Amino acid sequence: MPSLRARLLAWVMLPLAGAVGLDGWITQREALRTATAVQDQLLLGSARIMAEAVRWEDGAFVDQIPPAALELFQARVADRVVYRITAANGRLITGDTELPLPSAEAVAEVPLHFDVQVRAQAARAVAYRQPVVGAPGVDSVLVEVAQTLQGRDAFAQQLWLQSMAQQGLILGLTALLVLLGLRQSLRPLLRLRDAVRAREPGALQPLHVDGVATELAPLVEAINQYAQRLEHYTQAQQVFIQNAAHQLRTPFTALRMQLSAALRAEDEALRREALSAIRQTVQQSVRLVNQLLTLSAADAESRANAAEAVALDALVPRVLEDLAGHAQARGIDLGFECEAPCPPAAVSALAAREIVVNLVDNAIRYTPAGGMVTARLLCTAQDRVLLTVEDNGPGIPAELRERVFERFFRIDDSDSGGSGLGLPIVREFAHRSGAQVSLRTPDTGAGLAVDVSFAAAAPQAAAAGLP
Questions:
Q1: How confident is the model at residue 440 (pLDDT cuts 50, 70, 90)?
Q2: Is 432 found in the same domain as 309?
Q3: Mutual angle of helices 217-264 and 268-300, in 10-degree steps
Q4: Residue 428: how many CA atoms within 13 Å on its side-chain side?
Q5: Do 24 and 99 belong together in one domain?
Q6: Range of the structural domain that residue 119 is part of
Q7: Residue 417, CB-side half-sphere exposure with 13 Å CA sphere
Q8: Other CB atoms within 10 A of residue 119 CB
């Protein structure tokens, strides 16, 4: 791709080159007009000299053509010059009979210029009528002088070439000055480039805006804003990695201790108890790893994938069937309510499933034995599809409802086996899908209700919606 300097130079010089081309066309026409005017003046001068040489003596016309009449046409390009002098009665006095008469009537002492053909060659001619004194029956003579066009064209070409040479010199000097100006003007951009290159790897400090050209200030501010977002993202990733390492270290430490206890146990009952604890720890570790992978998938989920259409009234019952065993093991009554068919939601299939799975799984884990968990679908008047997962568990205090969306944050839940990633996964997928998540206390006054509001899919997307 061409450099910015080359592109700017091209945008400056192309209009100038176009202007020079247009000026060259105009100059060529003006050069031809000027050369024609010069030729017309030479023809008129020659015709006048010839006309003044014609006189009436001793009953006849005397036509001693002076050499000066033809010497006017001496030039580097040899042209054919012909002339003709005719009396008023049409009698030829002297000259070339092949030179035609002008089509218009010549007025006395008023030159008439016209184009003719002389021996199959284009020529320029002048007709000049000169009064004659003393000639009986003849009051004037018509003098015609014609010259071929080689000299005129060569002169016009010379004028045009001289003008174009000057224009080319001006264009070249302009290009040089513009190039020098661009080089000088782009120095702040090069300094900005050098400042970015000189940074240490990982340095995200903002660039200095002082001394930066006005046109570059928005670019510097955009870079600083991006660096700030990148720094926040990097810090969040570092915190996430540290928390993930801590969360993984805890079960592995417990697993090592449980294995040691199982190896030392001599009683079969104690060994079975240790093995059962090991199995539970492994299950929790596997669930934690799966949630970490799911969270990574949520980070990679793009809004382009959220343009699918998913039928939640078909997806939610399937998720509840998959988690029915988990609910039954904890003595939870799992239910589903949908008052009327809902349009498909504008969300990707991956995001929809992970949102429903994590909400229902969280509700089952945090609801005491014998409790109830209900998934409910409702279509709102604003073309939205509302998914609500409600339980009658301990709920979440209002002051902690924002913090529970932080990764690895958990309220004291020694019996839940949670990892603090369920609700962060839900919010991340919802954010990527353009959905809205909110927490509230159910109308019963106890437990927790999580509302996820999806936009209804467009009709064309709904027609190809996923079940």
A1: very high
A2: yes
A3: 170
A4: 23
A5: yes
A6: 4-157
A7: 18
A8: 11
Q: Are residues 310 and 458 located together in one domain of the fold?
A: yes
Residue 36 has pLDDT above 50, yes or no: yes
Q: Partners of 142 in the beta sheet? A: 86, 129
Q: Which amino acid is at 46?
A: S
Angle made by CA atoms 215, 219, 224, in degrees to the nearest 5:
140
For residue 30, which phi and psi values (nearest 5 degrees)?
A: -70, -35
For residues 45 and 68, what is the distance between their CA atoms, to the nearest angstrom?
Answer: 10
pTM over 0.85: no
Same domain, 444 and 334: yes
Over residues 213-269, the pLDDT tens digits come to: 777 778 778 888 888 888 777 776 776 676 666 556 766 777 787 788 778 777 788
**pLDDT at residue 304 in the model:** 46
Closest C-alpha among 411, 392, 416 to residue 401: 411
What average pLDDT score do residues 163-168 get?
90
**Domain check: are 455 and 331 in the same one?**
yes
Q: Which of 95, 99, 96, 126 is nearest to 110 (CA)?
A: 126
Residue with tokens 């006395």: 108
**Short-list 431, 462, 452, CA closest to 308:** 462
